[in-house]
Amino acid sequence: MTHPRLAETEALLAELVAFPTVSAASNRALTDRLAERLEGLGARVRVDPDPTGAKANLWASLGPERAPEEDRGIVLSGHTDVVPPGDGPWTGDPFRLREAGGRLYGRGTCDMKGFVACATAIAAEAAERPLAHPLHLAFTYDEEVGCFGAKAMVAALSAEGRRPAMAIIGEPTAMRVIEGHKGNCEYHTRIAGLPGHSARPDLCVSAADAAVRYAARLLQLGEALKARAPRGSRFEPPHATLNIGRIDSGTVHNVIAERAHIAWEVRTVSPGDAAFVCAEIDAHAEALLGTMRAVYPGAAIERITIGDVPGLEPAQDNAARDVALALTGPMTGETEALHVAFGTEAGLYRRLGLSAVVCGPGDIAQAHRADEFVARSQLDACLTMLSGLVARLAG
User: Which long-range contacts (CB under 8 A, 24 or more apart) does 88-92 make?
Assistant: First the structure.
């Protein structure tokens, strides 16, 4: 038997997918539409713009209005931005929902407008019941490029002194409960040298050469991270990882490169993993600079932190995990929470003092690819879980 709000959820998902909220664009139209819908249900809604005004978070609350320090409610958290469609072989318009074989295709269906649609649809159910504790919906911007919206959201909650009890982050997990994931620290390194003709490299400083030496040291540090894996780690792989995503430098073969740019990341397991890598690579950069500045004093190597998102560290006592397992176990057959390598906003809520888990519709393998989809059955399972959650809040 399908959930009675499944058709409503699919219609809402089609509406959300039609907003092309790639991280480089505004999410305001989508956020304002969700705010209007939730206000129509009687929710207390706050829209918080970013400094540019082009993007915004949405915080909506249903149920009893409590003093911030006495909140003890449940947060359903999702992000409204999506990655670009890319140049892959889409078989339809990425921003127009289509159905085929029980799958709903479109950019963001899986990651993670499917959960946003489910949470918004279930808000109507929550609005019809006398809740003993508040239900909060937290929809954020720029998760895909560093969880910037969630950081602003958590900072606002902290400043207000609001203390919900738990958070469920609806990233795609095939409705399995995730109690631990790696952190994600993203960096850009910019290198400036002295250009010139390749016939006289002794009079120049090649940013490309420096980038190669810098990247080689990063690869060594990636290997060193393997030895830092904590005993009994449940992650795959069990250690922190380092990836060089992009290296840009130079123009043509006979010109010494003036500038270089390296984009790289560390997916952390232990709290000190990123600090270890940064200390080592900064020391290596200083040594490189010594050689470079002997020829050109204006040479520079600058490491910029783009994003620093904490991991979700497993906790022996985790009420969100226990509740989520109780609600999803009959559907998935899972009795234990899992660990994953991808990152989410969950670690930010944990830092605020909430118990937190990740659990949502769709398979992460479908995210960030052409013909992204979420199965209709996954939306149905998510709605069933959220209905159970509302019933507990009303109990």
Answer: 88/369, 88/370, 88/371, 89/370, 89/371, 90/370, 90/371, 91/371, 92/371
Question: Which of 351-362 are b and which e, b meaning 16 or more Cβ less than 10 Å from the residue's Cβ?
Answer: ebebbbbbbbbb
81 belongs to the catalytic site: yes
Q: How far apart are CA 82 and CA 107, in angstroms?
A: 7
- For residue 105 the two structure tokens come to 């295709």
Report the b/e string of 294-324 with b at 16+ CB within 10 A.
eebeebbbeeeeebbbbbbbeeeebebbbbb
Angle at the Cα of 376 (from 371 to 377), degrees rounded to 5? 125
By CB atoms closer than 10 A (0-12, 13-18, 19+), residue 188 is middle
The backbone region for 53, taken as left when phi is positive above 0, alpha when psi lies in -120 to 50, beta otherwise, is left
Confidence class for position 2, pLDDT limits 50, 70, 90: very high
For the chain, give the number of residues: 395
pLDDT tens digit sequence for 348-393: 999 999 999 999 999 999 999 999 999 999 999 999 999 999 999 9
Task: For Cα atoms 21, 22, 23, give the angle at the middle one, nearest 5 degrees.
Answer: 110
Please state the pTM of the whole predicted model: 0.90
DSSP string for 222-263: HHHGGGGPPTT--SSSSS-EEEEEEEEE-SSTTEE--EEEEE
> Which residue among 81, 273, 345, 371 is the active-site one?
81
Tokens of 212: 């190669």
Q: Name the catalytic one among 111, 142, 143, 171.
A: 143
CA distance 288 to 31: 47
Task: Summarize pLDDT for 4-33 with one digit per residue, the tens.
Answer: 999 999 999 999 999 999 999 999 999 999
Would you say 72 and 135 are in contact if contact means Cβ atoms under 8 Å apart?
no
108 phi-psi bin (left φ>0, alpha ψ -120 to 50, beta other): left
